[in-house]
Amino acid sequence: MVPTLLLFTLNLFNPEVEVYGIWVQGTFGGVIYPAIGLFLASRRPEHPIGWLFCAVGLGLGLDHFCGEYAIYALLAHPGSLPTGQAAA
Known about the structure:
mainly alpha
């Protein structure tokens, strides 16, 4: 989440780019789900719910990162980062 928040901060300081409205949900989801999953998987590694929470957290974190990356690469500073279209 650190690279995601760095890109979000860089996007926030660009006046031409609108701030993604639900970034708080993506950030909390990318942190809370893996934390719960790690707790559950450390207590009962054979139980699939802990691993499912970890996978959901990873998916949310990647989704949030790709969104911020695409905003930075395509809107805030076009052409500064490669594969902005793929991230979008």
